[in-house]
Amino acid sequence: MNIATLEVVAERVTELLNKLGPLHEDELLDELAADDVDCPADLFDKLYSYEGLLPLVRLLDDGRYCAADMTLSGRTFTHRLTEAEIAGNCLELDADLHGPLSLDEDDRYQDLLDGGTFRHVMPHFDGELLAERDIAMTPANRSLVLLDFGALEGSQAGELIAVQVTENGFELESIAEAELSEAPAGLRADVLEFVEPHEGRPGTIWEIVCSCVPMIRGCSSTRCGPSVSCWPSSASRSTRTRSPGRGMTSKPPVASSRSPR
What we know:
Elements: H1 3-20, E1 23-24, H2 25-34, H3 43-48, E2 57-59, E3 64-67, H4 68-72, E4 76-80, H5 83-88, E5 90-92, H6 98-101, E6 119-121, H7 123-132, E7 144-146, E8 160-166, E9 169-174, H8 187-195, H9 204-209, H10 214-217
Antiparallel strand pairs: 1-3, 2-3, 4-8, 5-7, 6-7, 8-9
């Protein structure tokens, strides 16, 4: 297979994962064969040998592949601001935001939908940029997201902000805590039960969303697994009106579920 053919196959693999949800390699090969795509047995080795062919495809712990943007689209991730973040107009890339920020390999997720800066930086590569903002890097904040100057002006330490993933990019909003709804009964226990055997492994957020924790998947089945009936279609994705201006808007969003802690 030449690179041109691999690009076509990679595009079709992404389309299948968006449509059908997480699939094992043999399931993907069967779907490609049904489309009359002639695939070698080492197809995924070839696809991953070229950087950028499958930028948003993730391999789950159970051996399935998922489309990361589809998996997280419509979901909101909350984060409590610190004094250092407000002073530097930045967000620390901690467990709260690691999931959505790993989408930045795609151009759609390298800025905010309203055009505001949302740049992932690391000290080894962006030292001068960090020095311009007088941001000191520590082991605790070894990876950051830079926002526009003044984006967090007026914010207070401990205040909640939300990063919403849409199919076209990120939205950043402040959240009035009173607007948050309580997590559904049993959600915390379900998530903790799932997380425990995965502790210490990368990509837990993908595992949770793609698992059969029905309240996370948004499906009524107790053991749904990857199926067309419960995988969200593009028509059912949650969207929100684009906020005016650049950076973070102070208008609180419609009630959103609190992330389990």
